[in-house]
Amino acid sequence: MVVSLLLGLPAAVGLWLVSGGRAMPVRAARPLAAVTAAATLVLAILTVTGADEVDRAWLPELGVRWSFGVDGISVPLVLLTAAVGVVVTLHAWVELPAGGSPATFLGSLLVVEAGALATFTARDAVLFLVAFELVLVPMWVLVGRYGAPHPARARTEAALRFVLYTAVGSTVLLLGILLLVASAGTADLRELAGGAGAALDGGTQLAVALLLVVGLAVKVPVFPFHTWLPPAHTTAPTAGSVLLAAVLLKMGTYGLVRLPVATVPEGTATLAPALAVAGAVGIVWGGLVCLVERDLKRLVAYSSVAHMGFVVLALASGSETGLQAALFANVAHGVVSALLFVLVGGLKQRWGDVDLAVPRPALRETSPRLGFVLVLGLAASLGLPGLAGFWGEVLAIYSAWAPAADRPRVVLLACAVVAALGAALAAAYCLRVAGIVWAGDRPDRDAPRTPDTHGVEQVLLGVLSLGVVVLGVAPMLLLSTTADAVARIGGGP
């Protein structure tokens, strides 16, 4: 019952705001969306603590069931999604983009949240795909209608690229799921992970794994399927960028764990070298681009490509440590990216743009609270010990250095070395940003001072900063949650 409310509440309110409530004034729409997101967070907590589930026939002729529930793998992502839902709806008091009805904007945020929650709780492979696709249209609306107003052509192109890439990836994913379900005779993800998928012959497993990995790689995104992400981030409103980085990318990596890794382990092991190389190249490529990127929001987007590379590399290792690293890095990146995008969105509101080539006063002098949050977010992004970004990256490199016995050790060792170099690049570009924005190494004494953070924005930045510190200081809060579920997947030593 609780999990049904968890999924139904944001979906129902969001769809009503998008359709029947479009004319609702902003003074009513904002509180309604925020209360709905807060209630959804409470329901998420009740769902994960009470292990609530629903399981009934949906399409009995096809063997598809209406089945939702949580386990150790999905619990952190359900809580992250619900918390991010509160962040983006409250952020409407800080920034409410033009382009259409405020109710439609807020409703789209809630529908995206509902789709993500359904994705993380679905226990049927076909149901997973349906939920996976539910977020496509509202996210397209957020990017294409409420994105940066100028230039309009760039906004339209970014939205179309997002839709086309995701649709093509989803088509490949659909083929993989259909082949898996038809070959194994069941769509139940628990049965598939329990041995029904592993019992398939090697050729079928490889074909299924290839389709699933390629389809999901677009959503992650894995190099070289990442080119839709920077334009979408650059164009999207701040709330859209937060959802995109903290939630939508996690749907791709969660799908990799739940589908190919758990259901067709032999086929996934065959693809592991290519997956590891793609992850390592993405880490270095993202870092190199960030070293020269001028637009701060686009820089944070490219850093997401690099961070997702660590997740993919950890999954390719095939070990339990690698799975733990991937799941931890997934959640950590969600919190860190949300913090950085809220911060960068605030700076863009104040400055009009976030071009690093424009001289501005040092943030540490004009806006000490914003400056502190910037340094904290950059430190977490570069993997400083004691902050959220550290554990996922160091465990990912370790897992590649000591992979499972069925993985090509030489390839993964080389990828571990490349990933370590990529971590050094992260330190370089983060220090570059800190030098320009925080220290102000090119100040313009006549430029207007940057107003410091206050009110709702200060609360949001404070809560996200606390999450970054807690995950870094007490990583076992998350690692212990996922440990049993990772062991059941059957990772190597």
From TrEMBL:
GO biological process assignments: ATP synthesis coupled electron transport; electron transport coupled proton transport
Transmembrane region(s): 33-51, 72-94, 125-143, 163-186, 206-226, 238-257, 269-292, 299-317, 323-344, 370-391, 411-438, 459-478
Membrane topology of the entry: Multi-pass membrane protein
Record-level Gene Ontology MF annotations: NADH dehydrogenase (ubiquinone) activity; NADH dehydrogenase activity; ubiquinone binding
Domain NADH:quinone oxidoreductase/Mrp antiporter transmembrane: 122-402
Keywords: Membrane, Oxidoreductase, Transmembrane, Transmembrane helix
UniProt xrefs under InterPro entries: NADH_Q_OxRdtase_chainM/4, NADH_UbQ_OxRdtase, ND/Mrp_TM
Location(s) in or outside the cell: Endomembrane system; Membrane
A Gene Ontology term for the protein's cellular component: membrane
Record EC number: 1.6.5.-
Broad enzyme group: oxidoreductase
Matching NCBIfam families: NDH_I_M
Family under the similarity heading: Belongs to the complex I subunit 4 family.
The name this protein goes by in its record: NADH-quinone oxidoreductase subunit M
Organism: Phycicoccus avicenniae
